[in-house]
Amino acid sequence: MAKRIHIFLLIVYLLSKSKAQSPQSNKNITPGSTLNTNSTPNFWLSASGRFAFGFYPSGNGFRVGIWIVGSSSPTNNTIVVWTARREDPVVSSGAALQFSVDGSRVLLRNSNDEVQSIAELNKSAVAASMLDSGNFVLYDSGPRIVWASFDQPTDTLLVGQKLSQNTALRSSTSLTNQSQRPQDGCKLNFPTGDDCLEDQGSNIYNISHLEKIYWEPDEYELINLIPDEEACSNACLGDCNCVVATYDDPVCYKLKLPLRFGMKNDSSGIKSLVKVRIGGFPKARDRIVNKKVGKEFLVVGIVLIAFSLIVLTFALYILCAHHKWSYGIIPWRASPPDVVQEISLRSFSYEQLVSATENFKEEIGRGGSGRVFKGYINGGKEIAVKKLIKLVEEGEMEFRNEMKIIGRTHHKNLVHLVGFCSEGSNRLLVYEFMKNGSLGDLLFKSEERVNWSERRRIALEIANGLHYLHDECETRIIHCDIKPQNILMDESRTAKISDFGLSKLLKPDQTRTYTMARGTRGYAAPEWYNNNAPITSKADVYSFGVMLLEIICCRKKVDASLRDEEVVLVDWVYQCYRAGELQLLKSEELDASMEEFEKMVKIGLWCVEPELSLRPAMKQVISMMEGIVVTPPPLSYSSVRG
């Protein structure tokens, strides 16, 4: 009887929780609902009354948007956080906003009966809500969100809102005009080359100083051992191509234009040095004289350039032929052109990286394709330098693969690639430095036991990174080698996926591929060992499942020191689950409820399901981990060992 009461209370709890998360807990807007500019109110409020969606005054008319509610009705001083159809003119009094009767659109009808779409859906919505987060959403009958203002950012990001790939923030023209500001990004309005012709670059400029201003490092020249700021200023004044330099004792950087990602750092000793023209710009007549002089130089220059190109082409031919003969392998190029065209990364010289790592002094890791060393750039910024050691075609392929993949991805749970070196036979990749090593070190080598909430967070971060690679990245990617050693932990123990050397890029319309076996035994999915089986993103799901069981059970995938039935973790977990003895898997000090522990075990077993079609996608895995959907019992598991 007590067991029945317990089950009944659990069902009531789950139903109440589900109801609390559904749109019914907010103030719902039903299909057919309408707002008018001349009605009161002319907006829909969130449940707490903090945000509103509807008409707000703009100039001599109205716009549709979302704003922070500061008074009983919106005014021209309202703090607007989202605006629909920013480039359209304002609508006049008498306009109406309607959630269409069929639930397929949110429409704006102006006073002349012209209709414009605010939100258009592929499927009908049954309700809309202005959420307390500032997100205006439409729900289907699921209820699932099928449209959200958070997915269409304008000039503001709110708490919890993400700036997804292919979206952008663009500033408004003014506080009272939310139309997009014309894209001016910050250019010179005169050619600096004129000063080179005049041969007086250092005489017509002064240097203006900007204290503690830092720019993204992208220099065309770096001068070491500069004694002081004045020497750096003189170096820029004496270079007619230099417009901005930065001095970070004892290094002077001459920056490329346009400048990017400027920020103020009060703790930084960096100084920006900007050339400012004395007495304005040259008169038009002076420019005409300069152009005549320039034409004379142009003729001579063309002749010299043509001759130089002939000599250079011949020299390159001799060099490449010698290089190919010397190494007896594919010809190494100065920089892979197909890669450089697709990504924008900082190119380091080999000497720079030798200096940055003190001649590769401190090794912090190694793998099958190379070794990783700690280094420092930009006056102390820590980096990790991966030096490939395979001077064979596969090594070049892994180098290009990793550059292409990481150079085009941007996600908080993927390791950031800073730059590369492709010089002679040297191939190196430069990453952000991860202070807390790998997940493998944290789980299996650290004396400190990681608590349950942190284990769950780490697993969810890895899942989010994989979901990005599989579904949200412009070019979908199969990692092919997910394991604890390829998950790195930054200073705040945020998990980041690394080592993309074995990854496969898919074409935009491609969901599967055929390739030779990759990855690490024990983590590799069964389809890797079936010559006729296609490889999909679910190969990564299997590897994630093995790793998830390692994370929650606090042990490695294979442990030969244990009893025979416990040696292989995946088999042991399924036996315990089937026998109803999950307590045998749960470490005593692990502060997790059995309900939560069982849910994670079931998710792990679903991920390692041998049948490819039954294995969930990472998006479904995340939904189960977050409790958005209920995790069903896993199907019968047949042992398949990689």
TrEMBL record:
Domain of life from the UniProt record: Eukaryota
What the entry lists under Gene3D superfamilies is as follows:
Bulb-type lectin domain, Phosphorylase Kinase, domain 1, Transferase(Phosphotransferase) domain 1
Among Pfam families, the record links this protein to: B_lectin, Pkinase
Keyword ATP-binding attributed: yes
The positions making up the signal sequence are 1-20
PROSITE patterns hit by this protein = BULB_LECTIN, PROTEIN_KINASE_ATP, PROTEIN_KINASE_DOM, PROTEIN_KINASE_ST
Protein name in the entry? non-specific serine/threonine protein kinase
> Which species is the source of this protein?
Citrus unshiu
